[in-house]
Amino acid sequence: MSNHERNKKLLLELLRRPVNCQCADCGAPDPEWASYKLGVFVCLNCSGIHRSLSSRVKSIKLDFWEDELVEFMKSNGNVSAQSLYEKAVPVYYYRPRENDCGVLREQWIRAKYERMEFTGEIKYPPLSYTTGFYEGMLWKKGKENTQFLKRKFVLSEREFTLTYYNKENESKGPKAVISIKDLNATFQPEKIGHPHGLQITYQDNDHTRNLYVYHESPEEIVTWFNAIRAARYAYLKTAYPTGSNEELIPKITRTYLKEGYMEKTGPLQKESFKKRWFILDSQNRKLLYFKGQLDAEELGVIFIGTESKGYSVKECVPKHARGNKWKCGVTVETPHRQFVFMCEQEREQREWLDAIRQVLSRPMAPQDYSIEANVKYK
What we know:
Order of helices and strands: HEEHEHHHEEEEEHEEHHEEEEEEEHH
Shape: globular
Strand content: 25-35%
Number of helices: 10
Helix content: 25-40%
């Protein structure tokens, strides 16, 4: 056996250890790359980010490994690196997974290895997302148009508010003061059309209100995201003082279970089908629909309860198909009304059926009954 083959075999044995069998940064299974500067095993996507940081990266299977580099990997590994670089990650800080957008994964890696934010050393000045107050300018999409304009945003953990101003002159007062109570933030780069696009959603009286923002700096937009998460975590600790971190952390922010276009008909199921953008918010058990994917407010909302409460979903073929171009039907039954939607492809139909069934199968929590009671069907 050649030296090259022997070293490759040793590296593959290291990879089979449970502590190294996932990417050190995003948790993807079966990493095939390694940073021999840091001693960590990473996936292909994260290896590209490491390379951009001038971190020395090699393929386990394709590249030649010198003896001393193999020894370095043996004496380090993912757990050893995480004990140093992730020693003091705040509980609210978002740890990206393999399917998260590029800006989240890149800034997580930069925060760990380049800026050394989580080693436990006292930082001065303190990290922006840890102070309980954050302000700055973000590009925000207009409510009635597609134009993005610079707006000042102010986040206050003490007040549990996110405030924004329409003009740079604050003397005219804020355009909106948003309660942290119902606020959600989720990255939507494809939908917004910017790699740093962030969707902020909150309750505005009877409506769900969406803000679409971005910042040119990847570090700045991820700082905003984690500052919002810090404020949300502080609010949840106040609202649910006996709640454990295991219970509260999933509630800080969330990605939506499913989004996409479907055609929708009216309550009589004789009206023309119209194309609408749908969002399934699993946490609030809401299926919201909008005229377009970047609308500020929804046209309507459907609560998704449990089958024992009279809610269900199934495939369907509509009796009246006036105006619809798509043929793959989904029927959502509620105690109040039957809704019929059409998907363009069978794959989309299956994904919507699976996603809605996932919500149906989850028992209703006490707060879900309040949400159900406040839903107004149109």
